[in-house]
Structure formats: C-alpha cells, structure tokens
Amino acid sequence: MDEIAMSNVSLSFETVKGTFKALEQISFSLKRGDNLSLIGESGSGKSTIAKALIGLERIDEGSILYDSVDISKLKLKK
Length: 78
Fold this sequence. Notes:
The protein is about 10% helix and about 45% strand. It contains one helix and four strands; from the N terminus they run ββαββ.
C-alpha cells in the first residue's frame, strides 16, 4: 500500500531553560504519490518532523508507521 503516517507524535528536548516541546500531537498520513509541504517559522518543528520520519530523532509519544510497521519502536543500529 505504501503509506506513511504520524499519529499523535510528540517530541521534546531538554535545554538549559527546561523542556522544549518541538512537536505536540502531530498527525497526518501520506499515500504513494501524495505531496507534503512543511511550512512555518524558524523553530516550528519542520526539520524535527523530517528527522523523526527517517529515524534520526526518537519520539516521546505516538507512532510513525510505514505500511503499518511502527518504525518508532525499532531499535537503532550502531
């Protein structure tokens, strides 16, 4: 089916000023052939979404599904 979906994804970072919520309850799905544009101000989470989708950022909550496989639960190889 070739589908990518983020469901209720949240991700935060610890900073010297405390916890920074980069993503909060983000949800969307894309099927093969769909297009996605991420538009927003600097610091609004565009790069964080992209990094989470390819596994470079680990999410705190929610799921990221590729054809029904939750990649957010996969272990990273070193």
